[in-house]
Queue: 2 jobs
Job 1
Amino acid sequence: MDDLLLREHAKNIRHLIIEMITSAKSGHPGGSLSAVEILVSLYFGGVLNYDPKNPSLESRDRFFLSKGHAAPVLYSTLAEAGYFDKSGLDTLRQLNSPFQGHPDMKKLPGIEASTGSLGQGLSISVGCALGLRLKGLKSHVFALLGDGELEEGQVWEAAMAARQFKLDNLTAIIDRNNLQIDGFTEEVMSLEPLADKWRSFGWSVLELSGHDFDQIVPALLNAKKRDDKKPLVIIAHTIKGKGVSFMENICDFHGKAPSEDQAKIAYSELKECDEQ
Amino acid sequence: MKATREAYGEALLDLGRLSDQVVALDADLSKSTKTSLFAKEFPERFFDVGIAEQNMIGIAAGLSLAGFVPFASTFAIFASGRAWEQIRNTVAYPSLNVKVCASHAGITVGEDGASHQSVEDIGLMSIIPNMTVLVPSDPIETKSIINWAFKYKGPVYVRLGRMGVPDLLPKDYSFDTKPYIFKKGKKIVIFATGIMLWKCLEAIELLKAYDIEPTLVNIPCLKPFPEKEIIEIVREHDMVFTAEEHSIIGGLGSMVASTLSRSYPMKVSFIGINDKFGTSGKPNDLLSFYGLDAAGIRDKLLDNIK
């Protein structure tokens, strides 16, 4: 594993996230930054089988961004992966832009589903995993959910179904950054004991640091090799706003753009981080 | 006599035999929605998701993304109500190829009462962009509509009923989204949808005694609404009535009135549920109670003709 290369991708993607949200003057930096290493691992860690030149390749693995408000991390990762040019990213959230506030699968290649309304991505992933298995394809389905999103009842309907249908071609990843719009998840609507909840729903559970490539990449690679007839959830412990000091663990940056000046500080921090 | 839900179950089974792209989903009501027929023959292509309608729509969306043509069924109240936002955001917004075939629509659910009687589903589904909304009137039309829905690429809502309905349309009838002039009369036109085609036909028998011979038009496609054809038909008549087993708000009556208001203004009289919840009772008693049986339709026409 070339850790340096992955860190380079992560730095580029963080830069793009700040750039596009600053340019849009709105968007969701916190939950985009917390998921950077997860998406980098999927797309550049040799985990996902995909071809940017053939986005509808039938044998591809599927990645569903259930926490659709983290669209900037998806857009910048797909751009970094070569699905489309980076030059359009600064049109985020503007009229006539394919870079909608939340992902629109009809407007860009590489986006597997239109998401944004929370709680629905795991159901879509269950359906897709069922379909791929029915077709006899070996493709794996990954779904990234926010932790606050787990407060939606539909997630647990899907969790039950994934177990019932014995979906070992499905892996859910929880971006456990502990924050939601109104505050800490444990204060707004407690999720703990989270791992126990998933275990009691019949899932295998793995917990790891969501910013450590040495933990994420092997876990995702192993996730694809299962045939234990059980779905797997990876609870990735992350920091909301990761990489930008004044955004880290700050609830306000869930859905607020940085100012131009703040963006400059953010870029310099990302650069420093790279030099360390 | 056969309920449109039963004709749906048979049509779905036929489609399953025709194409292995067809998959079916249900939310613990397969014996009632008749997806059980498909389930018995194709268990590997049938998914019972339990009592979880929102999840069912999401799973159907995922199956369509994997290349299948999912038919998802439950009662109309739960499909169009409980799972409305899932249908709107996950299915209709990206125009996924999901068919929501909802049974037990309208008051003729009967004894179960208001909680299970959907009189709002046409409105709820029609307001969503990209949706196609279809309401078969009899078993023959149901089969034609289900075959059409399979061939059509995009989201479709099909409204099905619990109550037995006689075959009304010709055996060789083929659904094509346009109004179907069932009976040519004069002066008065009644646009009817679903089970009301049958009830209007009975009412027209009663109206013969009054020398009234309305034209009866079946409207199986509520969206896209056949505006041009409806205006053409209205032009040949002096009075317009609409008949639906649905709220008069947001259903066929509203759509006809809206259509006419824009290009051929004239009075429209609504036969339907007048902004009320349903109630328990035998289906036929309920039709009578809400003025949707032959006598009720006759009286409505006579009142307005005076």
Note: Residues 49 and 95 of chain A are 33 Å apart (CA to CA).
Job 2
Amino acid sequence: MTAVPEPVTAARKPFNGPMLDAHLVVDRGTFRLEVALRIAAGEVVALLGPNGAGKTTALRALAGLQPLTDGHLALAGGDLDRPERRVWTPPEDRPIGVVFQDYLLFPHLTAVDNVAFGLRRRGLDRRAARARAETWLARVGLADHGRRKPRQLSGGQAQRVALARALAVDPTLLLLDEPLAALDARTRLDTRAELHRHLTAHPGATLLVTHDPLDALVLADRLVIVEDGRVVQEGDAATVTARPRTDYVARLVGLNLYRGRADGHAVHLADTFTLACADRLDGDAFVVFPPTAVALHPQRPDGSARNTWPATITGIQRHGDNLRVQLAGPITAAADVTPAAAAHLQLTPGQQVWAAVKATETQAYPA
Amino acid sequence: MTDTDAVVAGRPEGTPSRRGTPGRQVPAALLLPAVLGLMFLVLPLAGLLIRAPWATLPQRLATPGVLTALRLSLQCATLATLLCLALGVPLAWLLARVDFPGRRLVRALVTVPLVLPPVVGGVALLLVFGRRGLLGGWLDSTFGITLPFTTTGVVLAEAFVAMPFLIIAVEGALRGADRRYEEAAATLGAGRWTTFTHVTLPLVGPGIAAGAVLCWARALGEFGATITFAGNYPGTTQTMPLAVYLALETDLDAAIVLSLILLTVSVAILAGLRDRWISST
């Protein structure tokens, strides 16, 4: 194993508090981003959201490629950007490393010179910069690829060079923009594990922008979910996956999500439908249940304390080993059934069925 | 036109064309004008070749003055191109990368030498750099520098006429280049100058080369501005186009020979550069 290169910058003063403290406001007429982010040293936060949610705008604002309209951006206690006080730091003066979505390795430079680029700009002479760049290439497992040009590298290798280039300058904040999106499925698996190792070792704060929930769950300590330029939910992976708060998050984690008013064991949804729940709750509430909890019947099932409703099948897709059935009716829901059950029930789109969910399979939590 | 269209379109489907990708017809509406265009460009050249006095060619080539004019032409065109590169590339960068008030106007001004008759350009240069011109008088009295009717004057006249070609080509290359590489350089700590020299220039290198070639070719053929601003003195300001013009008055054959030499040399150089710069990238 190669030794960790010494930091380029002078030893940092000990700093208690979040490494990154930002309230990003970017107003672009039709689109407004307003996101608060706090990341501790050594922490990896994933900014997760659908396309067009403002993830990349947030990353560009942090890197200084997009000025803030309002709010502030402080790293290790020092303001980098605060429009109200006319504080602004150009990107080249920010201790921030960026791994871009398609890496943007300089095509005219070898892998080693790409990694050495930032080190040279930080005042190292050519030999020292190259030596350190080679150490970094070795760390990402590309010791013998240093003389290659970017076009001679595979996607996974280019990603690792980009990571080495961003990490080589020892950034206080590391930004990654969809770092795995450009890779094929197989490479992505290996690269993700590799990336996880490097992110864990990175002493600074890390922000990962992604629309892939798996990347976020594997790589990040904490998730921040943005939709339409706003944070809709944040927390650790377990909380977010168990208790989604928007349809987008529910779809990501594969749960049926409803919002209503709880009254004891009953949650009244807006459309006069009531779900019976095992949890006891009062006030505004969310209810979730997994598609596997939904049973389908040809006739109205009789029985114990369960939720039943008549539904129309609107679609059937493969989902792993099961079939996922989309249901319309008093509530829309997804149900997972085994192929055998589907054959038995002769499920077809447009068909009328009865759906049933046991109260004990649901989870209710305050909105 | 329409007849030809109909004939080609009427070919039975599935008949393989003799050349190119099967099933991919070159539309006659494109092919016909393309061939006409090529002929329009090549026929005058053929005329020169046919009328050339091949029998007396060796003697004519050895005439004193021919080589001098050729050497002067190549030197001046090269110097003018270097001058255009030194001034034009930064100007193109400014136009492509900095959003300053009046940028549209500046861009329009840059193209003025393209539409200005070169002779008028020469007169304009005289009015500025002439002995009694706006700057010329001051240059003369302060530094003892005289520009009109000197070799330097030839370089200036050629640069004036050829610079727009370079600027337009380089600005286009800069606009076409992926600016995110420059952003990546900035996040790695590179200021604007370092980004320009270490990232932008290498990225648009082929575009600059293409612009320089255009610029050089235009400078090599420059006539009007040169003869007006620098005169027609053998050895100091008489470039090939001027020599051709002079020969036309007295001896058509000599003019054809001079033209052929200019053509051969410039085509050889351009082809050589093209292989080296454009294909290798």
Note: The first strand of chain A starts at residue 20 and ends at 27.
